[in-house]
Amino acid sequence: MASTSQNKPGKKQSLDELVGVAHTVSADDAEIAAAVRAFGDKRLRPHIAQWFEDGALPVRELAAELGELGVLGMHLHGYGCAGMSATSYGLACLELEAVDSGLRSFVSVQGSLAMFAIHAFGSEEHKTQWLPKMAAGEAIGCFGLTEPDFGSNPAGMRTFAKRDGDDWVLNGTKMWITNGSVADVAVVWAKTDLEEGARGIRGFVVPTDTPGFSAPEIKHKMSLRASVTAELVLDGVRLPADAMLPEVAGLRGPLSCLNEARYGIVFGALGAARDCLETALDYTADREVFDRSLAGFQITQTKIADMSLEWAKGYLLAVHLGKLKDSAHSGGPGVRPEQISLGKLNNVRESIAIARTCRTLLGANGITLEYPVIRHANNLESVLTYEGTSEMHQLTIGKALTGYDAFR
């Protein structure tokens, strides 16, 4: 006869302890991650389920607080930006997305898309005008690339910038733009006739109070509800000549910005997965089924073990990419786009699988907002396809390994 003592729990480890997270990054990186986690637990987590249910986010209020925390454009240097390591930025994204993907999306769009574009490609006037205010959360930015008919193929965009005397006049529509309806400034990408008759793509810094600019909010979302999403409509938006980003032409500009945002997702998706796993561990420990803890059943433990293994592999890959990215500042190789594709493809795909499996462990309770699991699962449906679908990243990796471009 089996002893009943085998059903009594012994000493438990946390997921972080199992993986040895504390030994994978520097003390400074770990300290920043801990500060963001504490901010999330105290300021964000108590309200996030309600914000998700309401489909609303107090963006202005949170922007100022996130600016004070120092996470807006935190991996950029100068102009009021914190100049932290890429690994620190990644870990901050992980901790923010452990609360909700919408919060990490806000920080990513502000820092890795809008601010990065201005920092990397803007004039000195652009940088001094916008970056200090954006780093402080006093000004909010958005990034206008995707169009209603052109997501994975940005080269097909129809938004056009035409010269009219010394000015530019922009016409077109952008879609699925995070922060769009609350932004003070938009970085908008458009085709022009600049490149000797060929329609070259250029970026423009567009104050959102410019006549002809509007940003109707997109409602009725079932994912990223705690995030502001809008359409951008440019109807004869007239800009001075110096509104154009002077330091880049072609798709290299927007694609390099997307790589910055994808890097944050590599870490961020793991935050959502970790929160699901920790929730499932707590729930199964307390939930009794057939007079014993759900955590004590073999099928429960195999699910937990498999999910933890995938999380650990994803985390180690993310930290490796962070160290590669940081190496560029000391003469190292840096991180290449196809390497970021490895991280985005794996970590989002595994994170959504973890969220779905954790939902099964919570049973019917897994579909309520009393627990975060279904919220994370719904959010990750968006993360799975934005900043490059899984298929696009598969083809990026395939091209790198075979030399053949299979996009067309």
UniProtKB/TrEMBL annotation:
Residues 250-401 form the Acyl-CoA dehydrogenase/oxidase C-terminal domain. Its cofactor is FAD. Keywords: FAD, Flavoprotein, Oxidoreductase, Transit peptide. Gene3D superfamilies: Acyl-CoA dehydrogenase/oxidase, N-terminal domain, Butyryl-CoA Dehydrogenase, subunit A, domain 2, Butyryl-CoA Dehydrogenase, subunit A, domain 3. GO terms for molecular function: fatty-acyl-CoA binding; flavin adenine dinucleotide binding; glutaryl-CoA dehydrogenase activity. Belongs to the acyl-CoA dehydrogenase family. This is Glutaryl-CoA dehydrogenase. The lineage of its organism: Bacteria, Bacillati, Actinomycetota, Actinomycetes, Mycobacteriales.
